[in-house]
């Protein structure tokens, strides 16, 4: 039997958590069973090149503005031409336009199975967001959440049954270890002063990451015991964060590194990673740090609670509590033994529970079920799924 042609769709291919998971998934799917392709609308990154290197066909379909009829017509024609067995969309924008396009492309014929995604808690989402998400869920053959907290939030927000949502936790790829000499060179290259603990944040510089809380926490610590902080990532809040850093008198203690393609090495070089987000699904940065043996401190929200066993695999603090975060950072900065103990347990947790093979196999199993249950036409879609045990 020839492999099934399937499509992964996302609006942006910038460097982010969903995009990294897409890269892992496309690289891991069995080519004897699946012929995966990628479609994105805007903002490519080096991840597109990585996906192409996996032998995956990559398609760029530009979308201009919120409503782009030319884009929709092109998407409909693309779907008719390629004849996918399944389409998996990774963002609300991609989900909505995929639902519309498949309905128009195959009004009276069997359409591709549709798989939707839940990759966050969406605590600040509007009623319009949830109305759209409900529509998408009802017309999808499967919905994959990357954390139980995300599935619970989506069930509540859409008003639909929790049994519709599968849970497949994110996976992390094993990265080659760097040597002590490489660690020292990398630390020096980013401006880290020798002798001070190196704290790291990896992620987009956006409001939900709550980086002002991290800056406030750092400012609470006495200068002689304060870790040096590197922020690896880019985003719209970079200018305001730089102003906050200078206003707090931390100009010599914090460095904005911009977007990096060596975050795995940075995590191995760091003494601790901090994730102060107001909400999180299943954080790739947190998982990658744990797998790299970098001790972590994170806000007690969403999927962070599923990843971190407090005092065993990391430290948790109450969301937006800069005083408690400062205490956690100081503990890790001052205690190498604590760092080693947390790092070893976290690495074991990632190795045992979040392998690429496990994520790919669980996702492929859902794809098989989705294709089997796909309706004969777009007007007869069923959204029922059962929660996976992954």
UniProtKB/TrEMBL annotation:
Residues 15-172 form the Glycosyltransferase subfamily 4-like N-terminal domain. It comes from the Bacteria. Keywords: Glycosyltransferase, Membrane, Transferase, Transmembrane, Transmembrane helix. Pfam families: Glyco_transf_4 (PF13439), Glycos_transf_1 (PF00534). Signal peptide: none annotated. This is Putative Glycosyl transferase, group 1. The lineage of its organism: Bacteria, Pseudomonadati, Pseudomonadota, Gammaproteobacteria, Lysobacterales. GO terms for biological process: carbohydrate derivative metabolic process. GO terms for molecular function: glycosyltransferase activity. The keyword Ribosomal protein does not apply. Residues 183-349 form the Glycosyl transferase family domain. The chain crosses the membrane at residues 85-109. It comes from Marilutibacter maris.
């Amino acid at each position: 039997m020839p492999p099934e042609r399937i499509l992964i769709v996302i609006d942006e291919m910038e460097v982010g958590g969903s995009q990294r998971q897409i890269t892992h998934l496309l690289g891991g799917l069995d080519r004897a069973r699946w012929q995966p392709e990628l479609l994105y609308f805007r903002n490519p990154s080096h991840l597109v090149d990585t996906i192409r290197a996996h032998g995956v066909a990559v398609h760029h379909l530009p979308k201009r503005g919120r409503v782009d009829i030319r884009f929709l017509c092109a998407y409909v024609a693309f779907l008719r031409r390629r004849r996918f067995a399944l389409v998996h969309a990774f963002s609300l924008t991609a989900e909505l336009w995929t639902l519309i396009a498949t309905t128009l492309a195959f009004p009276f014929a069997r359409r591709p199975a549709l798989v939707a995604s839940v990759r966050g808690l969406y605590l600040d989402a509007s009623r319009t967001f949830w109305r759209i998400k409900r529509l998408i869920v009802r017309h999808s053959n499967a919905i994959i959440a990357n954390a139980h907290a995300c599935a619970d939030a989506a069930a509540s927000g859409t008003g639909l049954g929790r049994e519709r949502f599968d849970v497949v936790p994110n996976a992390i790829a094993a990265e080659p270890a760097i040597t002590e000499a490489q660690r020292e060179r990398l630390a020096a290259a980013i401006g880290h002063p020798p002798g001070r603990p190196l704290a790291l944040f990896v992620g987009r510089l956006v409001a939900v990451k709550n980086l002002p809380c991290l800056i406030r926490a750092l400012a609470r610590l006495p200068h002689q015991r304060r870790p040096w902080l590197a922020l690896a990532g880019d985003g719209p809040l970079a200018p305001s964060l730089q102003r906050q850093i200078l206003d707090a008198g931390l100009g010599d203690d914090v460095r904005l590194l911009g977007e990096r393609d060596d975050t795995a090495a940075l995590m191995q070089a760091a003494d601790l990673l901090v994730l102060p987000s107001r909400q999180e699904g299943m954080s790739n940065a947190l998982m990658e740090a744990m797998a790299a043996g970098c001790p972590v401190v994170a806000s007690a929200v969403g999927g962070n609670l599923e990843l971190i066993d407090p005092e065993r695999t990391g430290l948790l603090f109450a969301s937006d509590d800069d005083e408690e975060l400062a205490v956690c950072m100081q503990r890790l900065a001052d205690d190498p033994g604590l760092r080693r103990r947390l790092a070893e347990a976290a690495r074991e947790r990632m190795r045992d529970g979040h392998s690429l093979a496990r994520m790919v196999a669980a996702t492929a199993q859902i794809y098989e079920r989705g294709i089997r249950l796909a309706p004969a036409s777009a007007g007869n879609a069923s959204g029922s799924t059962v929660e996976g045990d992954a």
